[in-house]
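User: Hi! I'm working on a homework problem where we have to compare a predicted structure to a textbook description. Could you give me the structure for the chain below?
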Amino acid sequence: MSFPWVDGKLKISASAFAVVEKAAVDAYARDEEACGYIQGPSSEPDLAVDATELQNLANKYHEIDPDAHPRTGHDYFKINALKFERAVESGRAGDQPVKIFFHSHLDCGAYFSKEDAASMTMGGQAKPAYPLCYLVTAVDKGEVTAHKLFLFNQETKTFDETEYSRVEG
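Assistant: Happy to help. Predicted structure tokens:
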């Protein structure tokens, strides 16, 4: 199966950005990172149009067992992996594949951290578990200040910033 969106230069709809930004600002108010995914039609591999927010479970895990889960949702996201996997499978089957995983950063800018890389590669495996792009949204003092899109570089095993465009829709 081909995943041409991992080549970058995606077009992301304004409506998808609206969902991402609302999720990021709302999560900031809860003192946690937002997270979710953006899908788009298989017939237009470079287009991502429908964003879905996922619940950040980091605070719940931390509350239950702070020794095993020392980080809170303020600087970490933890998702229901099974729910996300089902969304990926359903998207492929329904010709609306998941193309982007998004999350926000609170008061520290839009960058791809070492922790982000470890999360996306299941603890530092050779490559990400899913063929996706990764959108990081900066929320500073409660306002969205930046978006950056990243791709996994197979040669360097790093997540590199790539271009994207915002389109109507």
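For your comparison, note the following. The chain has one domain: 4-167. The longest strand covers residues 143-153. Good luck with the assignment!
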